[in-house]
Amino acid sequence: MTFTEQLRHARALNHSMLCVGLDPEPSKFPTAWHANPHKIFDFCAAIVDACADLAVAFKPQIAYFAAHGAEAQLSALIEHIRRVAPHVPVILDVKRGDIGSTAEQYAIEAFERYGADALTLSPYMGQDSIAPYLKYHGKGAFLLCRTSNPGGDDLQNLRLKSPSHEPKLYEHIAHLAQHEWNTNQQLGLVVGATYPSELKRVREIAPTLPLLIPGIGAQGGDAMSTVKAAWVDESVPVVISSSRAILYASRASDFAAQSRAVAAQTRQLLEDCLSQVVAEQNKA
User: Fold this and answer.
1) CATH number of the CATH domain containing 230
2) pTM
3) Active site annotation includes 95
4) How far apart are CA 73 and CA 65, in angstroms?
5) What is the CB-side half-sphere exposure of residue 16 using CA atoms within 13 A?
6) Which of 8, 113, 149, 265 is such that its CA lies 20 to 30 A from the CA of 165?
7) Total domains, the chain
8) What's the distance, CA 209 to chain centroid?
9) Pick the catalytic residue: 28, 95, 168, 200?
10) What is the per-residue pLDDT across 87-123, written as a single tens digit (0 to 9) for each?
11) What separation in angstroms does the CA of 166 have from each of 146, 163, 173?
């Protein structure tokens, strides 16, 4: 299956839009493993086991592993996901963005070394920095578009000069991803839940692209506004990511069960919002 097909399949099986972000910080681990980077795999694997039937994707953030020299634990974690949740795709959160020759090496890292199904990319060096990833048939790539951090305004909201109109930079990125850059039909966009009006605008520009949406949970994005702005229908994947709120629900020995409880609650909240959105669409 292509990455987009994997997302549709995972949604059909798990009835979920929830992506569980895996951002392991040893200083926040349960008391028995506190500040022990050698327990990164054990911690993340326990979360995966607890949430395997709740997630539409798992999203390891590579910096949290590399900072502790835990790349081998990341490889083992992705292999573990393949065993216990083979229907759930892996999005490697790397946010790479470099010239073509270097991008080729990063693509090997993500898709051959780690075996990820998709990754996140920065588009700001242009199409030739994206092209090497799209040579991998069926693999996905999410381009940073309108991110959830406040500093995104510094560049993403700038207006561009063009003969016919003045799109904002994030709008131009959405247009490129929907059209001329999407050579393998597996591009998606990263758009923060903390900016629902911009999320709605991105969906208008890119009606068929998967959206990876961080910003709910610890960052405070509103679930209903997010689902309403992003949802088209079951054919267009919506992947709503939560990391810290799920990972660090408890520091006791029952941390995995508590993480599952938060993930289940979040998934249900999103599905309840979707039911309302679909009902409104049907009325219209």
Assistant:
1) 3.20.20.70
2) 0.95
3) yes
4) 8
5) 27
6) 149
7) 1
8) 13
9) 95
10) 999 999 999 999 989 999 999 999 999 999 999 999 9
11) 17, 8, 13
